[in-house]
Structures are given as structure tokens and as C-alpha cells.
User: Which sequence fits this backbone?
């Protein structure tokens, strides 16, 4: 049957063996959607702000306020509408639109409505993720500090580089970058994006990793060809595992060798409003998410104000903004929120440009010092500009070349 055939072919193509061999579970689309929604369901007692509204805004106008720090962050930055929980569920449904690997159960779920002609390729894609989970770093990053968020997205892109390119070329072993490049650019259309344009934010979460990941994969394949090596799924996989991208900047700009920087900033709880908020979340936006923020606030970067139109999927920051590192903090007192974004740029010109973009956003207080810009984004309360400037002077940053190095740096600093 198709599963046994796809399993054997993936071992051949990658030169790696499953341990253990995954089993197959077949589900209908309805069963799969119900499963994914149960993973992403908001907490039952989730009406933390006491206004009775919570996430039950089914009217489609997107006005329900999120209650989780990531939801507040993305809504505050203008990246996603308030229906974030639902949007993320939708993204997950579409990400695994034909197959999915459960790494605890070692099960590959296959969704029965995949077109018959594509079934082996779809199974192959899911099985490549199974192998990546078993034998490589991709998809197994555990992090509860938020510091590795951008690295995780970079890893997802690298994983999709192997999975989607193998899928596009299935069942061939050779990945010819010249043949695949137009296929990659057609990917949004092939995946049905124009038909579901009404959900651009949900699509963004999913297809960024496909499109940007495949572009990274093509760059790696061209480098292999230039070095006189074979451009196969096995050599691409080996390249990605040996030198995975450690920031979404390295996904967008494979040609840039500069290391991302881990940014360390002070806790501002004491200087926000009356000092009753506490720091509840840290994260790293990275170039990918920062690009959406820039498009949300910079009219010149986003004609028409649409931050995630299909042609923008996979896009990074404009060339005059060279990201170096960032840190986001969310503060909360059970009712009010404050979001602070600390950024470090590769050069002062980028920092000045970013400062100018933020200057156009009414709700943001930005302060720059050299290559660093701190932005207080509300949505409810802010520290004063003086407090931001004083805190900016004590920010530090450390470059890292691998996830292991990042984890060590963070552990050393935060002991
Ligand atoms: Zn995938």
C-alpha cells in the first residue's frame, strides 16, 4: 500500500532509517480539525479580564481581546487580529493539511481528502518530518524561556525546506534548483492561497515556513552545486542538519554570515505606571515577525496596509533594515498590559530608519541609542521616555552561532 511504499522511499531518498518505524492513522478532515481545535482551545475559565467577552466573538469583526501574552503581543504590534487563538488553530489545520507526525505516539496521521495522485508525496512529506524529529534537531526544540522563539521558526523553515522540496520533486532523489525555483514561487497558488485570501493571517503562520524555507533550500542546493556536490534530498538534509539557520534572518538572507545576538534588558516593572505590573513573558521576534510589525506601522512599506498579502509570504525586512537581535517583554497585572520591544541593529543607519518608522506609530514610544532602539507599545500603560532611555543604557547583547550556544548563554546570564 501507499504507506509502506512512501516509508521505503523516504529511507532511500534520505539515506536514513526510521527508529522506530512510524505507524499510520487515517483520519477525515473533520476529525482532524476537531483534534487540532482541541489542542488550541482557550482555557474554559479564560475570561480573565472580567468583561464577559473573552474569545467568544464569533461576529467576525475581530474585537475580542486576547488574554494570553503572545496574543496580546501580536495584537498590540498590529500583526494579527484579536481572533488569534482561532487563527492559530486554522494555521495548524492547514500546516498539516495532508499528513502529520505525532512524535510521542510515532504515528503519521494521513488526511483522507488528499488528491489521489498526491498521496505518496504527501505521506513522504510527513515521513520526512518524522525522520527529522527522530534524528535531527528540527521540531524538537524545547524552550520555556521564549529566548529560542526565533530559532524555532528558523528550524521550522529548515525542516520545511527538506519536506516541501522533496514533496515537489517526489519521487525523484535529485533536487534541481533551476527546475524547482519556479515551482517554489508558484507554491502559494498551488496551495490554494487565492481561494482563502480572506484568512491572510492564518495563512501567514503556515506558508511563511513553506515559501521562505524552500528559498533557503534552493540557496543551499545552489551552494552544493557550486561546490561540485550532488543536489539530492540526502545532501540538502545533511547541509541543513550540519548548519541549521539560527534566526529567521538567516532564512531570509542565506548569504549573510553575521550571527544573531541574544539581547538582555532590565526588568522595567518598577517604572511602568504605578509599579503593579510584573514581567510575565519574554520572546524574540526575529526578522520574520519584525517584518510584519514594520509593514503594520510603515505605510511606505505596505501599500494598502495589508501586512500579509500572498506575494509577501516569505518576505523579510526591507534591505535598509539589518536586524541584529531583539527581546520582547510583556508585563501584566491581571487587567492591564505593557509590551516593550528591545531591538539591536547591525548598523546605526538601520536603527535610525527603524526609529523613524516607529515615529509614525501613534501608540509607540521609541527611544534610540546608537544601534539600539527600545519601543514601548502599550497597549494599556507605558514607562516614561526618561525611564526607557535610562534602561536602554544597561542593555547588553551576546552573539550566538548555535542553539546550544544560545541556551548556554541564557543559562549563564539568568542563573
Ligand atoms: Zn511540512
Assistant:
Amino acid at each position: 500500500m501507499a504507506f509502506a511504499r512512501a516509508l521505503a522511499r523516504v529511507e532511500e531518498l534520505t539515506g536514513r532509517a526510521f527508529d522506530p518505524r512510524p505507524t499510520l492513522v487515517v483520519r477525515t478532515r473533520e476529525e482532524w480539525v476537531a483534534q487540532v481545535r482541541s489542542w488550541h482551545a482557550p482555557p474554559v475559565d479564560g475570561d480573565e479580564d472580567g468583561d464577559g467577552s473573552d474569545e467568544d466573538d464569533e461576529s467576525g469583526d475581530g474585537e475580542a481581546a486576547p488574554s494570553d501574552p503572545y496574543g496580546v503581543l501580536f495584537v498590540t504590534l498590529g500583526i494579527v487580529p484579536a481572533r488569534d487563538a482561532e487563527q492559530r488553530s486554522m494555521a495548524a489545520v492547514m500546516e498539516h493539511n495532508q499528513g502529520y507526525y505525532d512524535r510521542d505516539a510515532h504515528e503519521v496521521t494521513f488526511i483522507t481528502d488528499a488528491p489521489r495522485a498526491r498521496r505518496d508525496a504527501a505521506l513522504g512529506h510527513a515521513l520526512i518530518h518524522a525522520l527529522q524529529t527522530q534524528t535531527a534537531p528540527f521540531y524538537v526544540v524545547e524552550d520555556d524561556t521564549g529566548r529560542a522563539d526565533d530559532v524555532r521558526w528558523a528550524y521550522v523553515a529548515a525542516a520545511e525546506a527538506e519536506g516541501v522540496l522533496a514533496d515537489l520533486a517526489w519521487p525523484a532523489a535529485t533536487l534541481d534548483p533551476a527546475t524547482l525555483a519556479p515551482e517554489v514561487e508558484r507554491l502559494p497558488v498551488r496551495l490554494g492561497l487565492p481561494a482563502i485570501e480572506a484568512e491572510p493571517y492564518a495563512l501567514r503562520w503556515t506558508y511563511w515556513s513553506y515559501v521562505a524555507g524552500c528559498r533557503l533550500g534552493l540557496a543551499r542546493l545552489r551552494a552544493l552545486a557550486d561546490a561540485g556536490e550532488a543536489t539530492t534530498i540526502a545532501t540538502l538534509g545533511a547541509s541543513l542538519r550540519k548548519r541549521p539557520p539560527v534566526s529567521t534572518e538567516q532564512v531570509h538572507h542565506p548569504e549573510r554570515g553575521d550571527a544573531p545576538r541574544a539581547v538582555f534588558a532590565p526588568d522595567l516593572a518598577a517604572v511602568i505606571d504605578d509599579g503593579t505590573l510584573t514581567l510575565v513573558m519574554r520572546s524574540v521576534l526575529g526578522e520574520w515577525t519584525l517584518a510584519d510589525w514594520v509593514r503594520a506601522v510603515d505605510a511606505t512599506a505596505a501599500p494598502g496596509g495589508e501586512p500579509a498579502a500572498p506575494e509577501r509570504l516569505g518576505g523579510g525586512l526591507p534591505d535598509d533594515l539589518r536586524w541584529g537581535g531583539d527581546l520582547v517583554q510583556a508585563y501584566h497585572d491581571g487587567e492591564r498590559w505593557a509590551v516593550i520591544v528591545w531591538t539591536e541593529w547591525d548598523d546605526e543607519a538601520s536603527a535610525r530608519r527603524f526609529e523613524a518608522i516607529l515615529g509614525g506609530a501613534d501608540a509607540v514610544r521609541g527611544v534610540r541609542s546608537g544601534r539600539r532602539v527600545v519601543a514601548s507599545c502599550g497597549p494599556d500603560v507605558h514607562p516614561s521616555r526618561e525611564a526607557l532611555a535610562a534602561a536602554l543604557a544597561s542593555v547588553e547583547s551576546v552573539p550566538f552561532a548555535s542553539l546550544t550556544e544560545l541556551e548556554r548563554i541564557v543559562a549563564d546570564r539568568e542563573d
User: Anything to note?
Assistant: Residues 243 and 402 are 9 Å apart (CA to CA). The mean pLDDT is 83. Residues 261-414 form one domain. The chain is about 45% helix and 15% strand.
